Amino acid sequence: MTQASTLLQQAESQCHIRGVRFTPIRRRVLEMIAENGGGLKAYDLLDKLSTEHAAARPPTVYRALEFLIDQGLVHRIESQNSYVACACPEHAHGFQLLICRHCGYVEELHLDEISAQLAALAKSRGFNVERQTIELQGLCQDCRTASE
């Protein structure tokens, strides 16, 4: 079983448990993102989706992305305005992303203590954190090795 098919099964299960609809379009958008491995932009998704569904338009993709983000199935890479599948959709806490600037590889980390420390620091200053995005950019092992 591939990682993408595992993520799709987890997504179906999470949506069923939460009582939300995992429509064919939402499923296909998640599948395309999961199969990519790196970040995919909304218009890249639209290009791929429109070859399969002639009626696909930007709102179709953006609504699917909004749903997938709300359900914790996809993360937005803020610095690239792209999207990556959540490697651990049952994980309800903060996350961090390692992003290779050369090949686009993205790895998700779950260092809850870092998220908690930042939230506590913000709270001590009277700030209520609603969303936290931590992106670390650099070179992955493969790209570093290839450049040596």
Summed up, the helix count is 6
Distance between the termini: 34 Å
Q: Numbering strands along the chain, what is their spatial order in the largest sheet?
A: 4-3-5
Class of secondary structure makeup? alpha+beta
Instruction: State the major sheet.
Output: 3 strands, mixed
The fraction of residues in strands falls at 5-15%
Can you count the beta strands?
5
DSSP helix fraction: 40-55%
Succession of helices and strands: HHHHEEEEHEH
Question: Residue ranges: pLDDT <50 for 5 or more in a row?
Answer: none
Query: What integer value in Å does the Rg equal?
Result: 16 Å
Oligomer: single chain
* CATH class bucket of the largest domain: Mainly Alpha
CATH topology assignment of the largest domain: Arc Repressor Mutant, subunit A
> Taking all residues together, what is the mean pLDDT?
90
Large-scale geometry = globular
Detailed description of the structure:
The chain has two domains: 3-85, Orthogonal Bundle (Arc Repressor Mutant, subunit A); 96-147, Dna Ligase, domain 1. The mean pLDDT is 90. Strand 3 and strand 4 (106-109) form a beta hairpin. The longest helix has 16 residues, at 3-18. The chain has 148 residues and is an alpha+beta fold. 49% of the residues lie in helices and 15% in strands. The radius of gyration is 16 Å and the shape is globular. Belongs to the Fur family.
